[in-house]
Design goal:
Largest sheet: 7 strands, mixed
Number of strands: 7
Radius of gyration: 17 Å
Shape: globular
Structural class: alpha/beta
Strand content: 15-25%
Strand order of the largest sheet: 2-1-3-4-5-6-7
Number of helices: 5
Order of helices and strands: HHEEHEEHEHEE
Helix content: 25-40%
CATH class: Alpha Beta
CATH architecture: 3-Layer(aba) Sandwich
Length: 181
């Protein structure tokens, strides 16, 4: 098995991508309790954010028992955003400083994906942000995604932790565009 290329490696088409460390303004680490949701949140922070939010910083991470596992209220204020009720916030908010995009990420473990209703709620909640907003639904695996496929909103992105270097664009800019192998 050490010399044979597995089917997963053969067909997975994992890409070599630049990873940038995810910055927390307090320089700390986020500690989570064990559980499916928290495993996914850790993977989003370690993999998704480091791959897709160049020079990014995490603004908040919802907690399970406490209100926030991490919150940078100063960064929200700098962006002209006010914090709303905890229940309305996405699981993770990350700001890509390089491209000035705000990533609103729902980690599907116990709650659902970015549905059309949820997308509208998030759009209203972050209306004060005057640059690009990217709506992301994160799943641990494809099997979980399949349960929610029919409710994922258009104009959103899906990220699956088991294939971290790939994204699924629901009506993305490269619709029907050619891709190089």
């Amino acid at each position: 098995m050490q010399t044979v290329k597995t089917l997963e490696k053969r067909y997975g088409k994992e890409r070599e991508m630049r990873r940038i460390p995810v910055a927390l303004s307090n320089g700390g680490d986020i500690k989570h309790l064990p559980g499916r949701q928290n495993v996914l949140v850790k993977k989003v922070l370690a993999d998704f954010c480091s791959l897709y939010t160049p020079a990014g910083r995490v603004l908040c991470v919802s907690g399970t028992k406490e209100k926030w596992a991490y919150l940078d209220s100063d960064a929200f204020a700098e962006l002209g955003l006010t914090l709303e009720e905890h229940e309305k916030m996405p699981d993770i908010v990350a700001h890509d400083l390089e491209n000035n995009r705000l990533f609103l990420i729902e980690a599907v473990g116990s709650h659902g994906p970015v549905s059309p209703k949820r997308r509208q709620e998030l759009k209203e909640l972050f209306a004060g942000f005057k640059a690009g907003v990217v709506y992301v639904t994160a799943f641990l695996d494809r099997r979980t995604m399949m349960k929610y496929l029919d409710v994922i909103a258009w104009e959103t992105v899906v990220w699956i932790a088991e294939s971290p270097t790939h994204l699924i664009h629901f009506n993305g800019g490269r619709l029907l565009g050619p891709y190089e192998d």
